[in-house]
Amino acid sequence: MNNILTAVNLNKTFDSLQVVKEVSLTIKNGEFVCLVGKSGSGKTTLLSILSGLEQPTEGTVSINGTSITDSSENELALFRRKAVGFVFQSFHLIPTLSAWENVALPLFPIKMDKEKRKKRAMELLCQMEIDHRADHRPSTLSGGEKQRVAIARALVNRPEIIFADEPTGNLDSETSGAIINILKHLHEKNGMSILMVTHDQDLATSADRIVRMQDGKVVS
Ligand SMILES: Nc1ncnc2c1ncn2[C@@H]1O[C@H](COP(=O)(O)OP(=O)(O)OP(=O)(O)O)[C@@H](O)[C@H]1O
Ligand SMILES: [Mg+2]
After folding, report:
1. Within 10 A of 1 (CB to CB), how many other CB atoms are there?
2. How far, in Å, are 38, 127, 187, 196 from residue 106 at the CA level?
3. Which pLDDT band holds residue 1 (cuts at 50, 70, 90)?
4. Could you tell me the CA-to-CA distances from 89 to 113, 147, 199 in Å, in that order?
5. What span, in angstroms and rounded, lies between the C-alpha atoms of 25 and 6?
6. For residue 43, how far is its CA from the centre of ligand 2 (angstroms)?
7. How far is CA 101 from CA 21, 138, 167, in A?
8. How far is 204 from 194, CA to CA, in rounded Å?
């Protein structure tokens, strides 16, 4: 099986604080990996580096054979939009746009007419079983509904890997379970590669593999 992601010897220093220390990590194509560790251990920072949101101080990352640590900011932005899907704890939906417009937003730089964009967004909202809320603004949706919209948005450009940073952090346990089942389904049925940060030990057991961080290092 090929690796979707290969990271070699990553270090990240903010001022004089070393937050990520000599991290090497590979994720296989289609693998579901959970990243766990105490608050402040460097999980979000590592995820930002692996997904190309942030550059490491040292080290390299490649996704599907493309190095993302020596590309220009423009190349990187294009790559992120096409190859990577993000899901965040606090949803990061645009409040002035409807659910379907939020989902369609990453399609915007691509030349696609409005009807096609809406069709693609609706397909994903259907898949997430939230199409009946397509015209609603985020403020009128529940937490679980917002996260379904956010997952639909993450999938809209058919990414090769999904990065999720505590996607259930703002949800109750029942709703969390439903969101994890969606991610599991994407992994099992669609072969999606997923790297998910979670604090919840029970949720982490859904994954193929658990990577543990402690004080900036991957310890197991
Ligand atoms: N932009 C930044 N500038 C300076 N320090 C930072 C920056 N981003 C993160 N840090 C520091 O890096 C350390 C790791 O932060 P990070 O957010 O990666 O931890 P985390 O494991 O995701 O924690 P949590 O579980 O609370 O989300 C913390 O000490 C944090 O204060
Ligand atoms: Mg974090």
Report:
1. 7
2. 32, 18, 22, 21
3. low
4. 31, 8, 11
5. 6
6. 5
7. 40, 11, 21
8. 12
Nearest bound ligand to the CA of residue 38: 1
pLDDT tens sequence across 151-195? 999 999 999 999 999 999 999 999 999 999 999 999 999 999 999
Total structural domains in the chain? 1
Helix or strand or coil: residue 204? helix
Q: What is the pTM of this model?
A: 0.94
What CATH code is carried by the domain that includes residue 9?
3.40.50.300
pLDDT digits (tens, 9 = 90+) for 80-129: 888 999 999 999 999 999 999 999 999 987 788 999 999 999 999 999 99
Q: Which of 35, 36, 44 to mutate to test the pocket of ligand 1 (most atoms within 8 A of CB)?
A: 44
Amino acid at 4: I
Ligand 1: which residues within 6 Å by Cβ? 14, 17, 19, 37, 39-45
Ligand 1 centroid to residue 112 C-alpha, Å: 38
Give the ligand 1 atom nearest the CA of 46: 18
**pLDDT at 143 > cutoff 70:** yes
pLDDT, the chain, mean: 94
By residue range, what is the domain housing residue 54? 3-218
